Amino acid sequence: MATPSLTPTAETTRTRLREIVIIHTNDEHGYLLSTESKDFLEGGAAHCAASWLRKGCDPSASQGNVLLLSSGDNWMGQAISTWFRGQSTIEVMNAMGYRASVVGNHDLDAGQEVLRERIKEARFPYLAANLYRQGTEEPVDWVKPYLIVEINGVKVGIIGLALKETPDVTAAKHLEGLAFGDYEPALRRWVPVVRAQGAEIILVEAHVCPQDLALLAKKVKDLDIALFEGGHCHQSALTSAGGALVAVASSYWRDYVLTKLTYDSATGKVVKSEQELVDVLYPKAAKSASAPEPVVQGIIAKWDERTQTMLGEVIGYTATGLRKASAALHNLLTDSWLWAYPQADVALSNVGGFRQDLARGQITVRDIVSVLPFENEMYELEVKGKDILYALKTSGEPLVLGGIRREGEDELILLKDGSPLKPEATYRLLITDYLYGNPSYPFKLQDSQPYETSVSWRQPVIDWIRVQKSDRDNPLEKHLDHKPRQ
């Protein structure tokens, strides 16, 4: 009688090897529409979906091997998303086949109630294993710490991590009752739970920058996590750390990460891995290559029409356009505040509030919403001159100046009369509620009872542009201060 061979045949090897494909995006910020230049289309949800379908990856296939994930910041950005508080983006993400997203810091910009509404509308869960009820280490009841899904016969555990610095970059009024914990303790708590429930591969989906994610991977090398995927910094990266892959795309659906893991069910190990960062950038002339996915495109077209109906009013004209980092655009914001509130002396805002350029040509309300997407309101404070100087010195990012300009390191000059700001004099200061409630800035300590205007920070910009009656013969550029004030 012949002794059976103990050597695996090619057929048994093929049977036990299972390929899992993970598509990862992050920091989509509601950029449902592609960004257009003269010759190219870049990003956009429908073009991104078409790109991975052309690669043979269909996240919507019921029996497929593709897992589509996001690490958060889904909807605050383009007006088509911001104005509807993410409802349009959730409908699009449902159609694209997302299986999970992490709670990003900007997903809280419209408040917890709005976020919970969006989560109810999503056909996928939101994850954050380190998001707790304040004063406890118990997860809030509207997110999950983890998700286990079966892909190509393999149980995959996905653990989500929210940005632990969320309280430093999000308006305090939106974070009542919430606490954001450290990453490593959350993983050490939940990885054993996920494994006990049958997960064969562990992934971490985190709203965390790539360098911090790589450090975390090294700290938890013993947990045998296969893949860490991140976001937040809008910096793409493909690397490895602590024996795991680390992957981050940039933002706005301008690219995505495609990871292929080959799992050996006999050994319980990932035996092969591949990663690719795929750009979503097409020449307009290449019609077949740049064709959007039709179902997703149809949903976007519906919301685009609604946006145009509500926000399409033409309020001005710019001959050259204004870059989001330009002094002219920054000065426009704070100067319009002081125009609307002439009793105020100084205005300060944060550079990070500007999210895209103002394109040349006609200016609509929709354009201003896209440039300044966050739902901030204006506060008026009474502060000393030395308080303003201290705020500028200690700010974690450059502040946009209105009513003053800097001369040298310590001297501030009032624009009204050219006199120096006096350290002991009292001034009326305009800021946003975001800056007031953010512990990274000192304003709450400087005036504990500010005047809350209940006026959107972008409304004076819209009103001021209207008054200038700019057009081709009288472009907005003629009315702006183009000189840097820092």
Description of the molecule:
There is one protein chain. The protein is an alpha/beta fold. It folds into 2 domains: 14-303, Metallo-dependent phosphatases (Purple Acid Phosphatase, chain A, domain 2, 4-Layer Sandwich), CATH 3.60.21.10; 312-479, 5'-nucleotidase,  domain 2 (Alpha-Beta Complex), CATH 3.90.780. The chain is built from 15 helices and 26 strands. Strands 6-5-4-1-15-16 form a 6-stranded mixed sheet. The chain has a 6-stranded mixed sheet with strand order 8-9-11-12-14-13, covered by helices on one side. Helix 8 (210-219) links the parallel strand 11 (201-206) and strand 12 (227-230). It is globular. It starts with 9 loop residues before the first helix and ends in an 18-residue tail after the last helix.
Chain-wise SSE layout:
Elements: H1 10-16, E1 17-25, E2 35-36, E3 40-42, H2 45-54, E4 66-70, H3 79-82, H4 87-96, E5 100-102, H5 112-121, E6 126-127, E7 131-133, E8 146-151, E9 154-161, H6 166-169, E10 178-180, H7 183-196, E11 201-206, H8 210-219, E12 227-230, E13 237-241, E14 244-248, E15 255-264, E16 269-279, E17 281-283, H9 294-311, E18 314-318, H10 327-340, E19 346-350, E20 361-364, H11 365-371, E21 377-384, H12 385-394, E22 399-402, E23 404-407, E24 411-414, E25 426-432, H13 433-437, H14 443-446, E26 451-456, H15 459-468
Parallel strand pairs: 1-4, 4-5, 5-6, 9-11, 11-12, 12-14, 19-25
Antiparallel strand pairs: 1-15, 2-3, 3-17, 7-10, 8-9, 13-14, 15-16, 18-20, 19-22, 21-25, 21-26, 23-24
Provide a brief overview of the structure.
Helix content is 28%, strand content 28%.
